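hey so i finally got around to running the thing on that chain from the lab meeting. sorry it took forever, my laptop kept dying and i had to restart like 3 times. anyway pasting the input first so we r on the same page abt which one it is
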Amino acid sequence: MPSVQPVASVIPQPPLAAWVEASVPYLADLSVKPVTYNPPIGTGVARRVGNYRDFKVRIHNVRPIAGDLSLDRQAFVLARHETAVRDFYDRDEVRRVYEPEIEALVKRQTGASKVVVFDHTIRAADRGVERGHRAPVRSVHNDYTENSGPQRVRDLLPADEAEARLQKRFAEYNVWRNISHDPVEMSPLGFVDSESIAPRDLAVCDLVYEDRVGEIYIGVYNADHRWCYFPRMTREEAVLIKCYDSLKDGRARFSLHSAFDDPTSPANPKPRESIETRTLAFFD
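ok and heres what got predicted. didnt touch it at all, straight out
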């Protein structure tokens, strides 16, 4: 399968810092029920209700220990993953080329027997809404809850198959990647090590769309959270994020993540362009 090679940069890059300090938007408390109103793509930005506040956190560069990370402990991993996609803005090419690539990647990383790729969201930091996409999400969140994880299976599979699949282990993984030929300089994605998340840190938030209401978790601030990121992600890398796991045996079941402003970014950073692909993984 052909691969897309990155454009070589002629500008020397400074060494990566071991950690950076940045602000991320958490819920300060649960005095106000969190609700997010999502308009149709390309028509506006999300409106959030809740007692949100920016909290300063230390976000560690975990590239040096990327090989030690685990989906079942930290709930996120970095994978080398070249793609044959030439234009991620071409929906037909993404469906034909990228979906089989992601299905194979998730199977390889998780051991799942079946993977269903069901959603792609392109986020652009430069006029994302005007261009018919979404902007990077700046809130500490997780895409599924105890209730919405199983509901997504029922939404996507035939009723009989869904009920059979729900009797065994299944998980939801997001696959996030940079789709620009330049490394990420603006609004990188930060992740909370799942081993530092307590159950009380996950607040159910209604996610209101034009045609349906879903649920996500919003992070409630906890000073014990261990934040991590992979600086300067390239087009040949992908992060798998576990957002739900039905198995309750002590492994990571949920995660938290958010975009943030990296203080080590260049003075005029190139706008981030990324795609996140949502998948359901089923295990025998």
